[in-house]
Amino acid sequence: MATTADYTEKIPNNVDLHEDRRLQRALESWQPNFLNWWESMGPTLPTQDVYLRTAVNVGREGWANFGHVAMKDYRWGIFLAERDGDRRIGFGQHKGEPAWQKVPGEYRADLQRLIVIQGDTEPASVEQQRNLGATAPSLYDLRNLFQVNVEEGRHLWAMVYLLHAYFGREGREEAEELLHRNSGSDESPRILGAFNEETPDWLSFFMFTYFTDRDGKYQLGTLKESGFDPLSRTCEFMLKEEAHHMMVGTTGIDRIVERTVQLMKEHDTDDVTAHGAISLDVLQKYLNFHYSVSLDLFGSETSSNVANYYTAGLKGRWMEGRRKDDHRLTDDAFMVDALVEGSISQAEVAALTGLNTDLRREYVSDCQSGVNRWNRILSEAGLPQRLYLPSVAFNRKVGAFAGIEATPRGEMLDASEWDGRKGAWLPTEVDKTHVRSLMRPVHERGKIAGWIAPPRNGINGRSFDYEYVRL
Questions:
Q1: CATH superfamily to which 17-470 belongs
Q2: CA distance 277 to 279
Q3: Which of 58, 56, 205 is nearest to 128 (CA)?
Q4: What sign does the CA torsion over 287, 293, 298, 301 have?
Q5: Backbone region of residue 46 per phi and psi (left: phi > 0; alpha: psi in -120 to 50; beta: other values)
Q6: 3-state secondary structure 214-231
Q7: d(CA 458, CA 355)
Q8: What is the pLDDT of residue 280?
Q9: What are the sequence ranges of the domains in the chain?
Q10: In this predicted model, what pLDDT tens digit does every residue of 115-165 receive, in sequence order?
Q11: The model's pTM
Q12: pLDDT at 246
């Protein structure tokens, strides 16, 4: 398999697509449908061209090529990480066997389902973010939005390739469906709840790329361990691109906190609303919402499905190779978050059924690192306020805590108390209206909106005032 992408092909790829004419024809007939979807459901802001990064190879030696590209001409393609001919399955009942190059018949339906769910999230986020260009706080941010969008489009291609190459007619039908479901649609919504929420403003966008794309990182990390080698290699390459999306979220929130702190000190006030910025309490509410919605994406605390995926070798744990156990888990126990006699607590379960909780905990500690960063900005400014992650029981719609209400500090509430107090913890209509009122576009080079600080560095060694987007 080629490491370098072949850009002479209609569909750039490093999987030697030209050697399988039937597959090539099938994907080339899907391509116009994808481009129609992009035109009708992708970014709405008209642009001439954008300073974008395009993958040129998947090796360790620099894989990105930067240049101004008209977005409709972006060369979406199919890239898998390099193949390790000696790779073995690292967990479950097939541990030690050679990784599968074809889909094992008994796992066909499960693998197809995992690929479809992952594939469905990719176009969903493009749909959620399609109107944001019209209110971008700077050309730098606008470019980052579009980079995220084209990469989500490429991640859709990654899953569609697997469906076409390995799952026959059913796979081709599923690939069509990925373009027919739409985020927030009443008739055919996206599969997972968080991907039907709207992303109406840039604060939501930064929270989404921080919290929800981070969920994507962990889901891809479990699929990277898969015994099905093409899926593993696909996800390994996608993880390189996912890192950029999370950087956009992390540094975006850094810059909002920074600007808020400047104005708090300048005007000696905690409430910077009147000064055209976002107060820390509103930031905390948005954080509470996006974090709790993203926790739901991990599913229930216990799951027999995930236990079966693990045992079958389809989906491993985060950093499976670093775990110091037998990688089979048949006799192990694990503590999961649970409601015990009406209290938020923990319960012991078989380790295999607790794998969703295992993954969620890895995610939670990773999320905390961003919160620590933002709190450092507050601390260095000499301010006492701190942001925090709410309790895992707060605002949950999936799993052990779906049937209860709890405060961000984890105190149980009855329904009427929750209704009376939730506006202190989740964005209210007043909060959303204020945030939206700040979303006035700044499309001039070197200029930036007043509610966010400029970035420390530009893209690829360019300065902040570079012409990242030509409108």
A1: Ribonucleotide Reductase, subunit A (1.10.620.20)
A2: 6
A3: 205
A4: positive
A5: beta
A6: HHHHHHHHHHHCCCEHHH
A7: 39
A8: 98
A9: 17-470
A10: 999 999 999 999 999 999 999 999 999 999 999 999 999 999 999 999 999
A11: 0.94
A12: 87
